[in-house]
Amino acid sequence: MPDAVHSFRELKDESQITAALEEGRLLFAGSCEFIFGAQKLGQLPPQTLPEIAFAGRSNVGKSSLINALTGRKALARASSEPGRTKQLNFFNLADRLMLVDMPGYGYAKAAKSVKEDWQEMMFDYLRGRPELKRVLLLLDARIELKQTDIDVMKLLDRAAVSFQIVLTKCDAVKPQAMARKQEAMQAIAAKHPAACPFLSLTSSEAGEGIEALRAELAGFALPTS
């Protein structure tokens, strides 16, 4: 099966691009329901759909991005205590794709045991989920890369799970600084064997990059019956 994201990004024909964007729009305009929150690996729901997981530091904008993609205001909700939640939240998108909201990491006030638990649980989830097609690793475009972000990239390399860097809050960064940021992040991605060689630039508030990301993810969804 060809890489769905590559397929979309490599489209040159305007009509094909338009069709792919429309497919993404239709998919994410469909029903999307929270079905389960798993705090332990033994609680994970059956693997019935291809899965796309969203990972990132606490407050990076995971919930905002999921809400923007699905056109909802409060489908995914941020925890009132960043870094404390250890739950994997599963959202069924139109019975064609499963969106998985992973717990945030890197919160300074989180206990050491919480951070260790995150790594252990997440690694077990990542390596034991054959239907997991891609992890979207969200990074705040406004701030410097943190060591915890690098550690998670290494964890994804070890788990042999394809991941794609998604820069969030790009509307808050000036164009020249954004270009430098993009170049630097692409160089970092090139050092990780599990990383996709391209980035997604997004803003949940301004809608930047949302349509393209929908089209990319639609390539992983089950076909319509």
TrEMBL record:
| Originating organism | Acetobacter orientalis
Where on the tree of life does the source sit, at the highest rank?
A: Bacteria
Keywords, comma-separated and alphabetical: Cell cycle, Cell division, GTP-binding, Magnesium, Metal-binding, Nucleotide-binding, Septation
Give the required cofactors.
Mg(2+)
Give a GO molecular function annotation for the protein: GTP binding
Task: Quote a single Gene Ontology cellular component term.
Answer: cytosol
Transmembrane portions of the chain: none
Coiled-coil segments on the chain, per record: none
Q: Which GO terms describe its biological process?
A: division septum assembly
Task: Name the family.
Answer: Belongs to the TRAFAC class TrmE-Era-EngA-EngB-Septin-like GTPase superfamily. EngB GTPase family.
Whichever gene encodes this chain, its name is engB
Q: What does this protein do?
A: Necessary for normal cell division and for the maintenance of normal septation.
Q: List the Pfam families.
A: MMR_HSR1 (PF01926)
For the EngB-type G domain, which residue ranges apply?
48-223
The name on file for this protein is Probable GTP-binding protein EngB
